[in-house]
């Protein structure tokens, strides 16, 4: 059974790629956002409340990352999507392809602006703020940054690619392994 991790910053197209891979290959998947939403629901909290809890209590992030690591090792799941999935698979020596979607700040902001129905300026500011906060947290907690290329077997430069082009490239990578 093939396994792949898909990672990238918000707005890089990871969710779109996972949806395409599932449709094209008939594979199973899990994403970090799903784990986050499930855990918020399990605790009886809204997403905003759970987000505040994660910001205030580092142990919650550690619990969520442990769930993600377990899913990476689950033989019934083909695709694991999260900013840290590639890193955890690398550290676990998981037998899988680890893809990072590299997309420029401006293109990610365009995508986020469209998805969230906000201005490009607001999306650029929100992305920059989130990236700074998240990178500080990852560096402090784990000693690495998600975009460090070390763990990835493949990096797709997707700034100027359509969703179909990214899907085709990922399928070529998976088929070539």
Please give a structural write-up.
- It is a single chain.
- This protein has 177 residues and is α/β, with parallel strands linked by helices.
- The chain has a domain at 4-103 and 151-160: Rossmann fold (3-Layer(aba) Sandwich).
- Helix content is 59%, strand content 11%.
- It contains eight helices and five strands; from the N terminus they run βαβαααβαβααβα.
- A five-stranded parallel β-sheet has the order 2-3-1-4-5, with helices on both faces.
- α3 (47-56) crosses α4 (58-73).
- The protein starts with a strand and ends with a helix.
- The mean pLDDT is 91.
Question: What would the keywords be for this entry?
Answer:
single chain, 177 residues, alpha/beta, Rossmann fold, five-stranded parallel sheet, 8 helices, 5 strands, globular
Reconstruct the topology from this structure.
Blueprint: E1 4-7, H1 14-25, E2 29-31, H2 32-42, H3 47-56, H4 58-73, E3 79-81, H5 85-91, E4 97-102, H6 105-116, H7 120-142, E5 154-157, H8 163-175
Parallel strand pairs: 1-3, 1-4, 2-3, 4-5
> Strand order, biggest sheet?
2-3-1-4-5
Regarding CATH, which class of the domain at 4-103 and 151-160? Answer: Alpha Beta
The portion of residues assigned to helices is: 55-70%
Using the alpha-carbon principal axes, give the shape: globular
**Terminal Cα span:** 12 Å
Secondary structure category:
alpha/beta
How many beta-strand elements? Answer: 5
Radius of gyration: 16 Å
Poorly predicted residue ranges: none
Figure out the total of helices.
8
Major beta sheet, specifics? Answer: 5 strands, parallel
At CATH's second level, what is the architecture of the domain at 4-103 and 151-160? 3-Layer(aba) Sandwich
What's the helix-strand series? EHEHHHEHEHHEH
Would you tell me which CATH topology of the domain at 4-103 and 151-160 applies? Answer: Rossmann fold
Q: Estimate the strand proportion.
A: 5-15%
CATH homologous superfamily of the domain at 4-103 and 151-160 - what is it? P-loop containing nucleotide triphosphate hydrolases
Arithmetic mean pLDDT: 91
């Amino acid at each position: 059974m093939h396994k792949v991790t898909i990672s990238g910053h918000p707005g890089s197209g990871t969710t779109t790629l996972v949806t395409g891979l599932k449709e094209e290959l008939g594979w199973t998947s899990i994403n970090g956002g799903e784990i986050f939403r499930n855990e918020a629901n399990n605790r009886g909290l809204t997403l905003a409340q759970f987000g505040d809890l994660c910001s205030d209590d580092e142990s919650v992030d550690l619990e969520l990352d442990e769930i993600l690591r377990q899913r990476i090792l689950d033989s019934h799941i083909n695709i694991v999507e999260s900013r840290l999935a590639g890193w955890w698979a690398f550290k676990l020596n998981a037998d899988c392809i680890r893809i990072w979607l590299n997309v420029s700040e401006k293109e990610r902001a365009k995508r986020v602006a469209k998805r969230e129905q906000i201005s490009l300026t607001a999306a650029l500011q929100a992305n920059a703020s989130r990236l700074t906060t998240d990178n500080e947290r990852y560096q402090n907690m784990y000693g690495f940054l998600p975009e460090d290329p070390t763990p990835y077997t493949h990096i797709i430069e997707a700034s100027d690619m359509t969703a179909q082009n990214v899907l085709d490239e990922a399928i070529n990578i998976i088929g070539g392994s």
